[in-house]
């Protein structure tokens, strides 16, 4: 891995089609913009139409000739995930970036009854990836990059309580959802290898990056003191443009290995490099159990895997 890798090192993406979830702001917006800058056709998969269209307009303003398009996707509603996959107007998908996420929210449930953080961060992306799998596996050199977090260390998944119904703690639930992201990548990479597929499944995390993700939960509850503390945290963080680099590296750099986990070299900031991950995120048994549970909960299976 090249020391000091930056967005200038992204290879030419002409002729490639990318889907980026949560591309209306923060790291997702930067990821979509830089992929478009390098020639990719980018589909901005976002929940809010107004914000999604505004993001597309911002990218077109920043990148002359950018080929970007908004498409509605609400990861908290599996019917929306299915509609997105069914309506996707693309013959090929070279890159799926599972970027969208929520953090430390008060207890809530998705449209399908799942705890919100587990439902959005993991189950929504599990379903989306499975529904897009035929186009991904049919495209040579395709990749799936799932954005996790260093805060996956806050909690291993509890297979007996995936929806955190017994004792909800928002940060523990967040950590578990990010552990689920890494276990998903681990199991997906294992299954792809067993099937002889060339599709690469990898993970990334932004370190500490200044985005609205930190303040969303506190703002939702009107906890102004906590919101201000989180705003101060953002002052210490690297900009979103730097936080997006591990994702962009995992998505585009040559030689990215399946089940790799890319993050800032210093853990919370710096150029992309291999990231530490908890041992439980490479547990084959846990990965298999989570996969089976995810299929049952979402009703989505992976053809050929």
UniProtKB/TrEMBL annotation:
InterPro entries tied to this protein: NAD(P)-bd_dom_sf (IPR036291), SDR_fam (IPR002347)
Keyword set, alphabetical order: Oxidoreductase
Gene3D superfamilies: NAD(P)-binding Rossmann-like Domain (3.40.50.720)
Origin: domain of life: Bacteria
One Pfam family cited in the UniProt record for this chain: adh_short
Family, similarity comment: Belongs to the short-chain dehydrogenases/reductases (SDR) family.
Protein name: Oxidoreductase
Species of origin: Streptomyces drozdowiczii
